Amino acid sequence: MNYAESIKYLEEFQKFGKKNGLENINIILDNFSRPEESYDIIHVAGTNGKGSVSALLNRLFSDKGYKVGQFSSPHINTYNERIRIGEKQISDEDFAYTMSLIGEKVSELFNKAEIYPTFFEILTAQALLYFQMKKCDLVILECGLGGRYDSTNAVKSPLITAITSIGKDHTEYLGDTIEQITREKCGIIKKNIPVCVGIQSEVSYKIIESFSKRHGAKTYYAKDYEFNDLLVNLEETSFIYDGKRVFSKLIGFHQIDNIKLFISIVKAFNDVKGTRITRKEIIDAVERVNWQGRLEKISDEPFVMIDSAHNPPAAKALRSIFQVDSRRKIAIVGFLESKDYTEIIDMLQEYIHLFVITEPNFKQKRDKLEIAEYMDKTGARYTISADINDSVKIALKEYKRGDVIIAFGSMYLIGDIKKIFMELLHE
Q: Which residues pair with 195 in a beta bridge?
């Protein structure tokens, strides 16, 4: 396969949707002699914050000389973004080569099967194989959806597991209540393997603690760490930690929680491996890390940001930033069919001067007329764009110096928005 063929092959598996069970991914990994057993793994589940926590870990351990693999999802522009070593994405050539290896094995193993591997199982197997081929020391492995039946949970003996904040998302697969969703996330907890716990609701804490005790898993808590004198705005996040003011490009009050979880994971790593990662090294990682698509500023003037907020917990985090920033905001929004866009609009509309409604370039996109109809009911001010390009033109026409243009609602939207803005601003 060449690169284009490998992408086409991968996307053919989207028709098989999602399913419960780890049988297929285990069959594939078994036939590659379990590549994931050749390196240490930090396995990360949760509703929001997985990418930021993983990026922090990647930054820290890469700076310390580890060869660090990172598997994340979804991507913003290309599938290559999901598989990286350090900050370097998998090359087109390596993507095609590893997908060819996976493809040959899948054809051999599932030629007459009634249940084929899913899209995400194929990607997971590809990433784990690639990290072995590149001789990684450590892999940061993000769950795609849930935990218990996520294909990443075929990993039997991670070094550490971690659960970021839990909220309502993917309810059609994980359940309608926080209790149900938390139990699914807890599926990654393993016997006698430390689990690091992000900031949670009381009900989630109780369920996680119950699972941890049952499995003899030592718990490390983000809530055990305290920062002082928080300063958060759309430009930066800063706080006092260990007597030093720390500045981070990870924007938002929610990122404070992610950083605390990151520190708890480092503590667990030190305990498990007998290392002595210092506070200075932790602070350096926090100040150096970048993670695209998370309140990412792509232009100073006009002031333009993109954010991956696509569910109510993420919208709540976005609202907390809007509450401390009085500038007029123009929001380019588009959602997928599976997302609860009504709660997002309800939370944010009082802070938005104008919504510019568009649709992501994705099959399961939410009809923009449906969104407009809902905004008619709520009294939100909006306009409907012809397409994504048009949404950017409308936002720029509306923009005045001192305003903020922000795009959110879907990862499949903000990548295109970023690309269009970058092209326009560099003409």
A: 161, 219
Structure tokens at 368: 């923009």
Superfamily of chain region 3-288: Mur-like, catalytic domain (3.40.1190.10)
Please tell me whether residue 393 adopts helix, strand or coil conformation.
helix
User: Among candidates 260, 143, 156, which has minimal Cα distance to 200?
Assistant: 260
- At a CB cut-off of 8 Å and minimum separation 6, what does 424 contact? 392, 396
Residue (of 214, 44, 268) closest to 139 by Cα position: 44
Exposure of 106 in the CB half-sphere (CA atoms within 13 A): 23
DSSP summary character for residue 159: S
Under a CB-based contact definition with an 8 Å cutoff, are residues 211 and 184 in contact? no
The token pair at 36 is 């994931």
φ and ψ at 256, to 5 degrees? -60, -45
In 3D space, the residue among 250, 243, 261, 325 whose CA is nearest the CA of residue 287 turns out to be 250
296-425 has which CATH code? Answer: 3.90.190.20
E strand or H helix at 396? helix 388-398
CB 151 within 8 A of CB 124: yes
Domain boundaries, the chain: 3-288, 296-425
Rg (CA), the chain: 21
Check residue 124 and give its pLDDT: 97
pLDDT band at residue 116, thresholds of 50, 70 and 90? confident
Residues 78-112: tens digit of each pLDDT: 999 999 999 999 999 999 999 999 999 998 888 76
* Cα angle for residues 152, 23, 165 (degrees, 5° grid): 30
328-to-28, 293, 294, 353, 356 alpha-carbon distances in Å: 52, 21, 20, 6, 14
Q: What are phi and psi of 245, to 5 degrees?
A: -80, 125
Shortest CA distance to 127 belongs to which of 161, 158, 151, 160? 151
